Please model this.
Amino acid sequence: MAELQLPDAKIDEKIDRLLESALTPEPSPDLHRKISGALAASLQPVKPMPPTSVLVGQFAAIFLVFAAALIAMMGVTGFRTLDASQALGIVAILAVGVALLSFVLAWQIRPGSQQKISARLAWACLGVGFLTGAALLFPWRGAEAFVSRGWPCLLAGSAVAIPGGILFWLLSRRGVPLSAGTFGGTLGAIAGLLGITVLQFRCIYQDAAHLLVWHGGVLVLSTAAGVLVGLAIERNGKGRRTF
Model:
């Protein structure tokens, strides 16, 4: 019991002496070789990711090539009905959207990148920009055959967005996104923007209400679907790296 009643300083000194006297055995050379061999066998070559600017250029270039191919197949009947201000305005909105989402996607998949604009803010800016442009640049007409004219555009835009989302996923899966939901939403947003781009050139119903509901609906549905898919994969335990 006398040992337990020593002053704190003496107890600390005694503990220090005991620790100093304890010898840490060095691993044997054989054990060291086994550990080194196991670590070396588990290592795999990793291809360095390109800089953010290169990733952005790749995403934007693939978007333009894919969009141009689809537009060539589906036609430009709708775009021919636009006047100069409408054509320049909608093309500017689409181009800014492509650049913005390309940056956001590159920031997400490149570890350590500073995300200067959050993904959710980018989605909101794209949606507000497109809706505002549609409302200001295009005429408001009657709602004649609104649904029968609109749902084919929604289906066509969604049909374009699905393979577009898969394509951008294949391009970006080498990265390491921190949030599967945010990553999925960004993929859905850029895929939805691809669908809108094709529709703007193809669709002959270039009035504000139609664009707001049916073309804008492609962007909303695609983004929401991307978020849900990402969250579902994360919840099922597949992990962020295999998204």
In short: The chain has one domain: 52-235.
